[in-house]
């Protein structure tokens, strides 16, 4: 049987806020910054304090509707109520959900994996496979050094590892899912530089060719109103949708009305499920994130910005190649810019070039997952992809040469990176069971098939 | 002869920085904020300390090249060296120039007017006309209340006023100038709103119609790469360039190479002087200042902004009407937006609607100015316009019904609102002489011509 297993649990704070608020000096975020270090260097002490909550506490949870603001302190002294002014940095539990910044992305899944291991230990059963954890607390600040660490540990920590599991993802509906793909991401800066300093639009407006006008002009050539990417070569490189994929998407449980309500729009880019899922997962997208250097504060300012930098990204899918995309985008923007005959200078740089990741859903690792899900939930999983990027998946695959599975337990409506992020107790507890079952199933995989 | 004269001296700090830095909590700007109040409520005490600098001090100035960093303290004890960490908030004097934030825009012109009045008093001569000052220290924060004050004082402070003089402007070259027009300004917010909150571009990219893409799309329809305004009706409303104007522009002293060097570009929007001056002063311009709500910080963020607001403005010229422009812009953007068939919501608002101002250069007020300039500088003035907006000029004209002249003494290269703003001692001293001469010339205007 299997000798060594490695579980990769990416501990992801919902820290887009964290990352950017930190520089603003919000003391709450400094506090959180401290926590992320704490997790990184000493991950278990805090987790285990959760994992070892004694039974009387858990009984509190079975009457969630009786919770009142004063309840935790007055009625349940042993309730581990870690809450303060910055309460969103810890998980607290209310109305059947675990709330907190990063509750679902990715504190609860990390805990669930630890509970799974703990369950075997508590029952004095041998683990069916050996387990190693990698817990990463700095993903939202770019995971600096993680790639280098993985490469450095290839022949030591990772030497006997057979499989890699990532749980940094979520279901698409109330139905459990296995994730077999993520999109990559090519992130670009397009900088247009004109006068040597910002100018007053009254005094100079009409005499200079404004960098902002140039930048708007070239950005408008990236994508059509209907979402068609206009950069030559991009669409040609995309792998065509196979009949099998079409059928798989057709069978996936996905409520479009619910999806629309969740994000608060009354019309999506595509009106049928298959098109929508396909464009969410396996077609590229252009998003324009914003412009640096121009006036972005509230109020009015009559400035001609001297140098403006647009930030936009293109999500990558098979068979796109980031190096090729870099060339296509750069060449295209320069050719569009040249037509404007502007004296300003354009500089296009690709600052992120992450490849997509795609797994074979018929691999034994996935077959084991299907069995485990059937056992715990009594249904077949949705086989889904992620539109976002988990660059480390690709790194693990390239460096270790091992197969990867992504096994989510987060709910489709957990609100990652958003207000009131939560994980339901149902997903948390059943998810823990799933991980326990999965450890068992993986141990059944025939050694030859590795 | 003239009974009463009113001099309007707008005391303008170069306070775009001031306005926006203040909110950032820079203590230097808080200090400056204090100063602006100080000027506003007690304008003379500080000025007169400058005006009454004793002769031995002035003799220091006659050897400007002998200045060294240690000079002021060690060699010239009586030198009024007001400088500290925030030295740019006061005027200090070096190498023949008066440096300081707002030195030319508009501290020195205010002082020069006070010196002019002082000169008559020192010589025990009666002022040839009566003089009233209005000194405004809050223009860069929007001059809140100034319009209301002028209206309220129409029949009291302003009741016997015959003429209004504004010196909040500058020459176009080394040749003295009289200013006879300014452009107005219509400032717009165009807001596109989509999902109820920001979304992750990986997770949602491809499924939603992004507000940023819509906004870029409509902004790109405002103006062509060659500077042509594409909003229907705008160009049609602009008064045609008369032969007289063409000839006037042709005669104006204006060095295009110097202008290019100053702003650091190698190509301007127009390659000949008349076109350039015409588009600087008497044609409208569209400037896109920036976008609020999108990602504008350094670094990368993979966000789909939920609500983005573009800020752009159109400088107004005769015979444009801000109310009409508001309708033209709003209708046009909505029609362009409708073609995109986007489910997002567009809201266009005009937050500033300032009319242009234009004077008759053959008015006795201007004829007196020409004579005074001839007397002091022994040459005829350039008759120029300003591309920027001084909304209060129009308010004075509309409320009081009196004629206005703009008489600049600031140099063309003073760097208003920029680093190292300065006023040359030459302009400062000869400008003071000009004002003295002008008081005399104005007193000669025949009463009947008022």
TrEMBL record, chains A, B:
Residues 181-337 form the Peptidase M20 dimerisation domain. It holds the Pfam family Peptidase_M20. GO terms for cellular component: cytosol. PROSITE patterns: ARGE_DAPE_CPG2_2 (PS00759). Residues 1-17 form the signal peptide. SUPFAM superfamilies: Zn-dependent exopeptidases. GO terms for molecular function: dipeptidase activity; metal ion binding. It comes from the Eukaryota. The chain crosses the membrane at residues 35-58. Coiled coil: none annotated. One of its GO terms (biological process) is proteolysis. Gene3D superfamilies: 3.30.70.360, Zn peptidases (3.40.630.10). Keywords: Hydrolase, Membrane, Metal-binding, Protease, Signal, Transmembrane, Transmembrane helix. Belongs to the peptidase M20A family. This is Carnosine dipeptidase 1. It comes from Haplochromis burtoni.
């Amino acid at each position: 049987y299997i000798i060594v297993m490695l579980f990769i649990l990416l501990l992801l704070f919902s820290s887009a806020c964290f990352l950017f608020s930190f520089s603003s000096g919000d003391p709450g975020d400094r506090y959180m910054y401290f926590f992320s270090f704490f997790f990184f260097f000493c991950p278990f002490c805090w987790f285990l304090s959760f994992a070892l909550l004694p039974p009387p506490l858990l009984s509190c949870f079975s009457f969630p509707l009786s919770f009142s603001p004063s309840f935790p302190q007055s009625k349940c002294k042993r309730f581990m109520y870690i809450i303060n002014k910055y309460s969103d940095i810890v998980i607290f539990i209310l109305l059947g959900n675990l709330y907190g910044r990063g509750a679902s992305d990715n504190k609860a899944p990390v805990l669930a994996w630890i509970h799974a291991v703990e369950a075997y230990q508590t029952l004095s059963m041998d683990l069916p496979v050996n387990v190693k954890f990698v817990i990463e607390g700095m993903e939202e600040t770019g995971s600096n050094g993680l790639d280098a660490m993985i490469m450095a540990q290839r022949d030591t920590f990772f030497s006997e590892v057979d499989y890699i599991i990532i749980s940094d993802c979520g279901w698409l509906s109330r139905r459990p899912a296995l994730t077999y793909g993520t999109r990559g991401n090519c992130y670009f800066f397009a900088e247009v530089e004109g006068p040597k300093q910002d100018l007053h639009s009254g005094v100079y407006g009409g005499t200079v060719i404004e960098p902002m006008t140039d930048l708007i002009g070239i950005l408008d050539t990236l994508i059509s109103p209907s979402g068609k990417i206009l950069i030559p070569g991009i669409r040609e490189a995309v792998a065509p949708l196979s009949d099998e994929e079409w059928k798989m998407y057709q069978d996936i449980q996905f409520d479009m009305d619910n999806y629309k309500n969740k994000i608060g729009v009354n019309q999506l880019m595509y009106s049928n499920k298959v098109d929508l899922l396909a464009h969410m997962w396996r077609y590229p997208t252009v998003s324009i994130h914003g412009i640096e250097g121009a006036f972005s504060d509230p109020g009015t300012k009559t400035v001609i910005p001297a140098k403006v930098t647009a930030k936009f990204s293109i999500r990558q899918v098979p068979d796109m190649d980031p190096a090729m995309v870099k060339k296509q985008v750069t060449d295209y923007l320069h050719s569009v810019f040249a037509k404007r005959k502007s004296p300003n200078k354009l500089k296009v740089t690709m600052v992120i070039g992450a490849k997509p990741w795609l797994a074979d859903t018929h691999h034994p690792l996935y077959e084991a997952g299907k069995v485990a899900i059937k056992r715990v939930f009594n249904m077949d999983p949705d086989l889904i992809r992620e539109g976002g990027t988990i660059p480390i998946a690709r790194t693990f695959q390239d460096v270790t040469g091992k197969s990867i599975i992504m096994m989510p337990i987060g709910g489709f409506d957990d609100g990652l990176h958003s207000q009131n992020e939560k994980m339901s107790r149902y997903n948390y507890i059943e998810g823990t069971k799933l991980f326990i079952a999965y450890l068992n199933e993986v141990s059944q995989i025939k050694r030859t098939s590795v």
